[in-house]
Write a structure and sequence with these properties.
single chain, alpha+beta, Glycosyltransferase
């Protein structure tokens, strides 16, 4: 696998250089140096705001029909005015995820520090710091154990009694109380409140404990913190519990119990348990993209980034590191029992997104989806479970919005949601009226089933949730008076706008009927539900309705500039350099557009990409570059996919390899960490190596010349199929495929195609010519 480490020889100057750890619920970004260490603590449910019922002045279907009449007539001004009056809700107490507290460790050792280094070992999920002071070695290592549900760090020094430090904790929200005792405990209580996204009075309560166990020396209180003097070693434990989703008063005892259980084990046992728990997921996939310029992997990560930015040589191992970092962040941020899925900043929080017009929330118009795009193919299916559970709860909440805003059955959610299942349109019509946002995130249930083929999951979760979404759209959609197509609307193409009626200037509008991304999503929804109902042998009448409706959906269209139309009409683009590429959903992550099946549409998608990325004013934020890279990978264009990845990693990553959104775009005031670039970039790398979305397994479909030789082990294709492969000089050398189900398997690579009749759990070895040999049963 190579050296899967982020490594540095200089202290972290702030959050953007800190190293993240997490156990799927509790996380920290560790900013370390020889003299101090700061942990920015987060807990996934620490949200301001509260659950609130949808509010609307809607007149139901009659009001909807009136505004639709305006849109169909081309009177977008009147249509948007009516939509604003009836479909735009008040902001309310939506809330945001917040940073919990900062833990600070201040060291007393005098003298300079020599040989300082810090690293994040992705294979072990351990952050470590090492240096020497006055000739004595000092070492610290920290991890977030999922098994014990605590954060742990051990501090050691080679000098007897040479460890002295102060431990302090400061809250990041107004309501924060704290106390310490000489037994080595700091106890705190906090509430997640702020007044930008809520009224400053409502939010989740948290309770936590920091405990220090020292070998030798003395522990004393110092204000609300602790001072440790003359110890030989110290272990610090952090536990946090919240009242999110809990009705009893026992929730505060959870952190007490976690500390007691963790402190009752030896450090070595905790560490070994943690490494094994993390490793059972992380070790499934190994990736080697080659070394490139000799010795580059041994350099500090920030130096490798600097060299990549300057275009000095090649570093394919850095792309492999970035891919595995995406897998690491997935494991750290989203475990099977996580109470909430990854949000805009994953499990972590830089304190920036939540203080401005943004919210550290669940954006449903690409960002949250992209967080989970790599999960299945990266062989981390369990990590998607928190999202599938969350979507099922969102569907329950979305029934109210379906009734309140549209007088329709089923469920709907729009542009974003929060910890309580907010499903109303956003309170700004131009960005908030995305009627398929909930459907987009729900398509991850389809993805989870198609990769895993779990019949129980299909029956109990995926089909019931998506069936209700289908019922909503069957009830909600309307026949276009001119074309006879079934269309959605009014809705937007997320956060974008257009010039109607052939204009290229003047007033611009956001809402229309039958936006392309809506229709792509609805087509995928109806198709999946029809197939699922047949598989489960249920709902025959509904299946017939869905198949009939699919025949009425509008086709994808190519515009006058050769581009894939973003709207039903070939509108002028008011923002041709816009960051969103929602209308390319059918190319990626969907499968309605493929070079083999729809060459004309594939060329239109390519034109769309080229027109968008060629703009001088392109809003080149992290998720856009990830979308570019993955889209080119779907088109089989490894060179352009690699080019976009290079820009993402070199220009839109902090020194800690976390991706960010640039200031001046979408209201961002500074470089803001947004996790989707990490996950989307990892997904793009996976797409360059393996396809399985179009009915066949494609090996090395978009391999760039920059990765001429390499190997991958443990990649996952749809059908619960595991793929290992090795390539040399840009061509497949050999592959081993382990199918998850018996039947026919089509494999493609380098212009060759082979059809295999396979048995589940029996491995098949293919050479570079795709000649197959059946191996022993696994």
């Amino acid at each position: 696998m190579g050296d899967m480490k982020l490594q540095y020889t200089s202290p972290a100057a702030g959050w953007q250089q800190g190293l993240p750890i997490g156990n799927g619920r509790l996380g920290a970004v560790i900013q370390g140096g020889p003299d101090k260490e700061i942990w920015s603590l987060t807990e996934v449910t620490f949200w301001s705001g509260r659950a609130e019922e949808p509010q609307s002045a809607t007149g139901g279907k009659a009001a909807l029909a009136e505004m639709r009449e305006r849109f169909f007539a081309g009177d977008y001004e009147a249509g948007e005015r009516l939509a604003r009056a009836t479909l735009e809700p008040p902001k309310g107490n939506f809330g945001t995820h917040l940073t919990l507290a900062d833990l600070e460790i201040l060291f007393d050792e005098g003298g300079g520090a020599d040989g300082f280094s810090r690293e994040l070992d992705l294979e072990k999920a351990i952050v470590s710091h090492a240096y020497s002071r006055n000739g004595s070695p000092c070492r610290r290592e920290a991890f977030a154990t999922h098994a014990a549900d605590v954060l742990v760090t051990r501090l050691t020094t080679g000098e007897t009694g040479g460890l002295s430090f102060r431990l302090a904790l400061s809250g990041r929200t107004p309501l924060f109380s704290i106390g310490a005792d000489a037994a080595g405990y700091i106890r705190f209580r906090s509430q997640a409140t702020e007044d930008v996204h809520s009224d400053g009075t409502c939010g989740v309560f948290a309770s936590g404990i920091v405990h220090v166990a020292a070998k030798g020396g003395a522990i004393a209180c110092e204000g609300n913190g602790l001072r440790i003097e003359g110890a030989g070693e110290a272990i610090i434990y952090v536990a946090v519990s919240t009242d999110y989703g809990k009705t009893d008063s026992d929730w505060e005892a959870e952190s007490v119990q976690a500390i007691e259980l963790a402190a009752g084990q030896s450090y070595e046992a905790l560490r070994a348990e943690h490494i094994a728990d993390h490793g059972k997921l992380f070790a499934r996939v190994r990736l080697d993209l080659g070394e490139g310029d000799s010795g580059r992997s041994a350099l500090p990560t920030d130096e490798r980034l600097r060299l990549l930015r300057s275009g000095e040589g090649d570093d394919p191992a850095l792309y492999a590191l970035f891919y595995q970092y995406g897998r690491y962040l997935t494991i750290a941020g989203s475990r099977e029992n996580s109470p909430l899925p990854l949000n805009l900043q994953g499990l972590w929080n830089d304190g920036e997104a939540n203080r401005m017009a943004w919210s550290c929330d669940y954006h449903l118009d690409v960002n949250t989806e992209m967080n989970y795009y790599p999960t299945e193919a990266a062989n981390l299916a369990e990590c998607q479970v928190p999202l599938t559970r969350f979507v099922a709860k969102l569907a329950e909440a979305g029934r109210s919005s379906a009734r309140t805003f549209y007088d329709s059955e089923g469920w709907v959610a729009h542009v974003f949601t929060n910890a309580w299942g907010f499903s109303s349109p956003g309170w700004g019509l131009n960005w908030g009226m995305n009627v398929t946002g909930g459907l987009w995130i729900a398509m991850q249930l389809k993805e989870h089933y198609e990769f895993g083929l779990d019949r129980v999951f299909l029956k109990e979760t995926a089909y019931p949730v998506l069936k209700e979404a289908a019922l909503f759209f069957l009830d909600y959609m309307v026949v276009h008076p001119e074309h006879g197509w079934l269309v959605t609307g009014p809705s937007n193409s997320p956060e974008n706008s257009f010039y109607p009626n052939g204009r290229t200037e003047g007033p611009e509008y956001a809402l229309s009927m039958g936006a392309t991304m809506d229709m792509m999503l609805v087509r995928d929804l109806f198709d999946f539900c029809a197939d699922a109902s047949a598989t489960l042998e249920v709902d025959e009448e509904l299946r017939a309705r869905l198949k009939s409706a699919m025949k009425q959906l509008p086709p994808l269209q190519v515009g006058g500039n050769g581009q894939l139309q973003e709207w039903l009409e070939d509108f002028g683009e008011a923002q041709p350099d816009h960051r969103h590429l929602s209308h390319l959903y059918g190319l990626y992550p969907g499968a309605q557009i493929t070079p083999q099946g729809t060459p004309e549409l594939s060329e239109a998608a390519r034109t769309t990409l080229q027109r968008r990325m060629g703009r001088e004013g392109l809003e080149d934020v992290e998720f856009t570059l990830a979308q570019f890279a993955a889209s080119f990978a779907r088109l089989g264009d490894g060179a352009n996919a690699h080019k976009q990845l290079t820009y993402l990693i070199s220009q839109l990553c902090f020194d800690n390899l976390l991706t960010y959104s640039k200031p001046g775009i979408a209201g961002a005031e500074t470089n803001i960490f947004v996790a989707d670039g990490n996950f989307g970039g990892a997904s793009a790398i996976g797409e360059m190596l393996l396809h399985s979305h179009a009915g066949a397994i494609g090996l090395l479909p978009a391999l760039p010349a920059n990765w001429p030789s390499g190997k991958a082990e443990g990649l996952r294709a749809r059908g619960n199929t595991i793929v290992d492969m090795r390539w040399e000089e840009g061509r497949l050398a050999e592959a081993t495929i382990l199918p998850g189900a018996s039947g026919t398997l089509v494999v493609c690579s380098g212009g060759r195609t082979v059809t295999l009749e396979v048995e589940a759990d029996r491995a098949y070895k293919l050479d570079g010519e795709l000649q197959a040999t059946m191996l022993q049963r696994m």
